[in-house]
UniProtKB/TrEMBL annotation:
Statement: the UniProt record of this protein carries the keyword RNA-binding: no
Record's subcellular location: Cell inner membrane; Cell membrane
Originating organism: Brevibacterium spongiae
Topological relation to the membrane, as annotated: Multi-pass membrane protein
Record protein name field: Transport permease protein
Keywords for the protein's UniProt record, in alphabetical order: Antibiotic resistance, Cell inner membrane, Cell membrane, Membrane, Transmembrane, Transmembrane helix, Transport
Every ABC transmembrane type-2 domain range: 52-277
Family, as annotated: Belongs to the ABC-2 integral membrane protein family.
Length: 285
């Protein structure tokens, strides 16, 4: 007798087997409370390890902006590539890219750093990268408010365009989540990738227009590459944010649908990519 068919006839399923995609999504939704609690608990526990606690959520990007702004401000002083209003330009770039880098690096380690949890408890493993990126989102919200207060000191004034941050943060969150899915699975199969990920994030940091206007730079190097700047997702986010927040900024509205295509495309690809390896997580540890 075929034991697999007999088990199926009696509603038995293989332990640790991969559910269908609709069942997987249903299991994930049923674990939404666990996901939220995990993200909130880890945010509190990580910040409570330091004497200044949650204040480090604001201090980390502030110190980065101060250091990078000072160094590149001196290097680029007098250079035509240096943007106007350099201080708020760098502050917005550094603060926003912190969310992307922490999501990519945290997502890459979300499975391998929770090996004991993955091997001992049954739950959709995709909960772990989702909780990590949601934790980063909770950290990013006060950072965003702090960033807005700083740019006000440099002459920016709130207007109706500031409400565009709601769809911008949502799309950026979706995009970061998709990237985290991809790196979470890839790091399980290729452990050395966790050592390379910081260099990838650094490369993105230096080439995505944090310290310079990517469109202006590309126009000087090779104008035929302008579509690259127009479709680079991080540049899309930074350009929209600067258009909203900076004094005399102009919002590139067409970048919203560029970013939307990137965000939902990467999210769907990342989700399916992660789901396909669901039954292998914990066995490859």
């Amino acid at each position: 007798m075929d034991m697999a068919r007999l088990a199926a006839e009696h509603g038995l399923e293989r332990v640790g087997g991969r559910p269908s995609l609709p069942q997987y999504v249903k299991q994930l939704l049923n674990r939404s409370d666990f996901t939220y609690t995990l993200a909130k608990y880890r945010m509190q526990s990580e910040n409570e390890r330091n004497r200044l606690g949650m204040l480090w959520v604001l201090l980390r990007p502030s110190f980065s902006a101060l250091i990078y702004g000072t160094v590149f401000g001196v290097i680029m002083k007098g250079a035509t590539a240096r943007p106007d209003d350099f201080a708020p330009f760098v502050i917005i770039g550094v603060f926003i890219l912190e969310f992307f880098n922490s999501s990519m690096n945290g997502g890459a380690k979300s499975i391998i750093s929770n090996a004991s949890l993955v091997q001992s408890l049954p739950f959709p493993r995709i909960v772990l990268p989702i909780a990590k990126v949601f934790q980063n989102l909770l950290d990013f919200i006060p950072t965003l408010i702090f960033m807005a207060l700083i740019v006000i000191l440099f002459g920016a004034r709130p207007d109706w365009d500031w409400f565009l941050f709601i769809p911008l943060v949502f799309l950026f969150w979706v995009f970061n989540q998709g990237v985290a899915f991809i790196f979470a699975r890839a790091t399980v199969h290729f452990r050395d990738l966790s050592q390379v990920t910081p260099f990838i994030s650094r490369m993105i940091f230096y080439t995505s227009g944090v310290f310079f206007d990517l469109k202006v730079m590309v126009d000087k190097i090779n104008p035929s590459l302008q579509p690259f700047a127009d479709w680079q997702p991080i540049n899309n986010v930074l350009s929209i944010a600067r258009g909203i927040l900076m004094k005399d900024g102009v919002v590139p509205y067409d970048y919203f649908w560029h970013l939307a295509i990137w965000a939902f495309g990467i999210f769907i690809i990342g989700f399916v990519f992660f789901w396909q390896a669901e039954e292998r997580f914990g066995r490859d540890e």
